[in-house]
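Predict the assembly for these two chains.
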Amino acid sequence: MQLYDPTTSAPQRNLSRAAPLASLDGKRIGILENGKLNATEMLHEVALLFEERHGCKVGAVYCKLNASAPAPAAMLAKAGQEVDFLITGLGD
Amino acid sequence: MPRDARIHEVPDDLLAAIDYCYGQGWTDGLPVVPPTVERVHATLTYEGRPPETVIATHAATGLELSVHAAAVNAVMAGCLPQYFPVLVAAFEAMDKPDFNFHGSTASTGGSAPLLIVSGAVADDIGMNADVNLFGPGNRANATLGRAVRLILHNVFQMIPGISDKSTQGNPGKYSFCIAERMRGNPWPLICETQGYPKGVSSVTVFAAGGFCNVENHGGNTPEQVLSSIADAMANYGCITLGQSVVVLSPEHMRIVAGAGWSREEVQAFLFTHAKRSVEGMKSVGKYRGSEYDKQHGASAHALVESGYIHRGLAPDDILITLGGGDAGGHSCFIPSWSRGRGSIMQHGPIGVCIDCR
């Protein structure tokens, strides 16, 4: 008996990680909020730790309109130009 | 066939083949029909485009659903070939960005894609719109809904506990598919309100939370019946700015439409009454100023009442139709997934190409 496989292979994608920052000192922070309850408070609290410990500054805050959808590509591209690293992530 | 279509050679033993599918992790927990080459090819005869045609893409992973993969999973779910155009149309609707099927299928919220088939196709393929509407017993309803789940599982890899993080799940995640009842329906069919040419059937897809039965055997006026539905829609557990589906039972429909109420009047009544006060929302810890502002801002609907959170943003966020058996004062309300507008219901024509890409 011959059965078709019901799964599909992941497409070939050109994915690579950004190079890690050599140092956090004085770097510009971006905050990517996802709109979840308390996301603003939690992410800014995390940013405050970076400010206190590494002299970072919050450079920009980006707000996703839909917590469960990927961030728009244009938003990420803009962040790439404006800040050195992003803080994001809040679930339920 | 797509170049990457893979074939598994298994012993010529049906039970062993079913076990093989289990072993491969291809099932929803229930036995599947082994997707033999012959059955898949028979299913593909109901789609005019080449098997490699992509009909949906996962926004986060890039995984793609081809016509061929859809047919394989349809066979596994137990679909007859003639059901296939409904499944294809459902995924083309789910593929629209505002449906956000990644979020709605990965979320802790545990939603399930509800399919509502409207128009002559439902009768043509033997769907149930009548007694035991959401229950078992009809092959087309059961297997079409199941095929959606198998595709999410096998093609898009929304695996429970890994990429599907649903806290408690939802029985509809096995299968959630109904037909709109045409018999005795006093209102235009859903497909007739969606702008399709006359005679074209449609499937509406809705990222649905759990099913809520609304019992009212004592109400004899539209206001009485609809107030009980509005109360269900406004319960603290699920009131949000999200959309709603309401399926009126024939008994309730006779009361409502018998008094001359149109679908639009029912939508307006439900939107007006499905609400909670700001104080009440605060008392249960669910008030959010941003949501209030969204509903009460410059583009607020005229029926929005100051000091209250309504369910949805406008009356047409409530999809209402007829379904179920003749006996019983049992309608239902089905809330949307998510606390807001994370997924917006979509629809598509079945078996025809309108404004094709």
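The interface with chain B takes residues 1-11, 13, 35, 37, 66-70, 91-92 of chain A (CB under 8 Å). Residues 28-88 of chain A form one domain.
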